[in-house]
What we know:
single chain; alpha/beta; Rossmann fold; Glutathione S-transferase Yfyf (Class Pi), Chain A, domain 2; 2 domains; six-stranded antiparallel β-sheet; 25% strand; binds adenosine-5'-diphosphate; binds magnesium ion
Amino acid sequence: xxxxxxxxxxxxxxxxxxxxxxxxxxxxxxxxxxxxxxxxxxxxxxxxxxxxxxxxxxxxxxxxxxxxxxxxxxxxxxxxxxxxxxxxxxxxxxxxxxxxxxxxxxxxxxxxxxxxxxxxxxxxxxxxxxxxxxxxxxxxxxxxxxxxxxxxxxxxxxxxxxxxxxxxxxxxxxxxxxxxxxxxxxxxxxxxxxxxxxxxxxxxxxxxxxxxxxxxxxxxxxxxxxxxxxxxxxxxxxxxxxxxxxxxxxxxxxxxxxxxxxxxxxxxxxxxxxxxxxxxxxxxxxxxxxxxxxxxxxxxxxxxxxxxxxxxxxxxxxxxxxxxxxxxxxxxxxxxxxxxxxxxxxxxxxxxxxxx
Length: 356
Ligand SMILES: Nc1ncnc2c1ncn2[C@@H]1O[C@H](COP(=O)(O)OP(=O)(O)O)[C@@H](O)[C@H]1O
Ligand SMILES: [Mg+2]
């Protein structure tokens, strides 16, 4: 079990100075709109990953008028405990472990979060890129080698695109490299999607709904077939690639589909169904993470009760917090109160957090 014992936040959005002790199970944060609930979860996300789960624009997290922000946490893992710290100023990011400055590579992997939030609905209903990114980031959190494969692939893509634009004589060399790395990334992505699909099948979902993650094109069985397939796709696109100066097939263009009862959830899911599916996906991610690393990730569930059935979300909180530390927010005092027997309830108001 990995969990945050203590959390301290300075100058993150509307939070000036907050310091709290958390439970290893369920922690409920309740408050009206625009009081700082999402900001609090963002602080935990930042502590885990060094970036926001909501925006690519990290400096916008710094409280207006402050020069920088800081988030610190005491993370318990097995019988050890580490102090993690992320400090952010415009153009500068500093990671610390037990007070010592460390590089991102050394920092990573000490705390992982999975996030459910309205913004994250784009994983279900947003662009294909959002879904590809979801898979690659979740798998990257599990395996540093997956992250390295993604980076190597992206470099090869940039270089092949440049070779296409410049009609360079090196194009064949870059194509070969792109095919090697692209086929490899496809294979790993497909393997991760299959793990998620299995966890989705066995996980928490409404009885009459079946969820799955599928990829297109389908990935052949052997590595050499995979390379051949991708090389074939590129050959068929030669003329169009020359004209556009871009690589038009590969993992950066592949289809990632979330299926709800066999149909594309991006097109067909109702708002409530999309939320249920996202939640199931979050739990599946948590499960695969636990199976693979033997450790738990912290679940951050923002506005969990909006548009989802209250009894179901209460049951869900019991289920998740029995398996991982869970931080959940709600704007409804009655709902938060009904969870008091399961964990701690905090009140969030104007950027301050108190035990309720
Ligand atoms: N950089 C910032 N500096 C100061 N306040 C900010 C900043 N960014 C956002 N806010 C404010 O922080 C408040 C809390 O936002 P949020 O955490 O999303 O609230 P909640 O989730 O409780 O509805 C909002 O009023 C928002 O306007
Ligand atoms: Mg919010």
